[in-house]
Amino acid sequence: MLNTPWETGSDLYRKLVVSALVATAIGILVAVGGAATDQRSLVLTGIPIIVVGMVCHLAGMVVRSRDARRRVKDMR
Q1: What is the average per-residue pLDDT within 1-7?
Q2: Model pTM above 0.90
């Protein structure tokens, strides 16, 4: 069995990772769509959506490290 973060991660970690991927993808699509159609408002709307995705990603990293610390503590 591979010991990947996805397999060993909690449900919260998985939800945060998927949320981060979805939010970032939507933000990129909105920003690229706005750039392609020369609509600055769409580009400026896409940027905060990308930031939300990055915040979810960072939260997932915090949850993952917390879970790893708990696993190490339980093994002692």
Answers
A1: 75
A2: no
